[in-house]
Amino acid sequence: MERRTVLRAAAIGAGATAFSGSLWRQAAAYPALPGTGPYGALRAADANGVMLPSGFTSRVIARTGQTVAGTGYTWHQAPDGGACFADGSGWIYVSNAEVSSSSGGGASAVKFNGSGSVTGAYRILSGTNRNCAGGATPWNTWLSCEEVSGGYVYETDPWGVNASVRRAAMGRFNHEAAAADPVRRVIYLTEDESDGCFYRFVPSTWGNLSSGTLQVLRESSGTLSWVNVPDPDGSPAPTRDQVSGAKLFNGGEGCYYRDNICYFTTKGDNRVWAYNASANTIAVIYDDNVSGAPLTGVDNITAASVGDLYVAEDGGNMEICVITPGDVIAPFLRVTGQSGSEITGPAFNPAGNRLYFSSQRGTSGSSTGGITYEVTGPFRTSL
User: Is residue 380 included in any domain, yes or no?
Assistant: First the structure.
């Protein structure tokens, strides 16, 4: 169930759906293949240097070291993982800062009203190291993950009212991303190591991450199981080395849960995986070993309500590619003139008609050149 396989209906589980009522294509024999995406070809770059399909437009929301328009807040360095949260008729976009604590590591937020105008910007986490990706919780907090050896997960308030809290029970390792599964009441976690693992945290009480059990995915004779990690603090042995037979993944990156399936990426082999929690199976739904593969340097991942997956590139052609439930993968956008950067933090607003993302290092190719964008357009709402 790895290379050259797909997520079949049987793997989805009896009666379960992959996305909002539409089954992942049953007849396909391979992972997603290059083809024509749902929005057609990319047009020439706009004034912001972004190539988009017809009908879509971009705007710059924030730039590293500059004041966010309409606010008094200076945007952070190296914007990385992000998510959106509903805020009345508006929403909030949060963004990590993948730099050291001395350079402003942590996370920031931008607040929008119902018409999409920026109404505020502020810091929600400070004093942490290389906050790479993370994930939203069903109780509207942002889990910001430290991508360092012995890194922690920090639970933060997107509104900036409540103080951030270090969640040590979720383990100390090279954290990358997190995704909440409200059905099984667990948080899935990826690890950015060439021999990293795929974890889940089982809170003692759902909605409270102060205590619980860290588990790692193990595979034996093709059967998957979740096994407790003896020492979640990663001492004296790293968490990935504590359980014999733990299934290893080559550089875990982005992670996103929807309808019983946790999608995650591995950059070392340029794959997109689907862990079906209902059936307890795992499959590769994209692998760049196919001819003409458009997606390389897989990184952050998110999904539209219709079921399309959006995967950002760390390098490659500086694209966000879309994988449809029809097993087609195609570029959705490309940022030009920024080959020394990477695409980070893709996230949709609650209505699903605006997509946010960042170019982490911008045109300067350094952590001081980050740019955060918004794309607006006719995102499809049905297949």
Answer: no
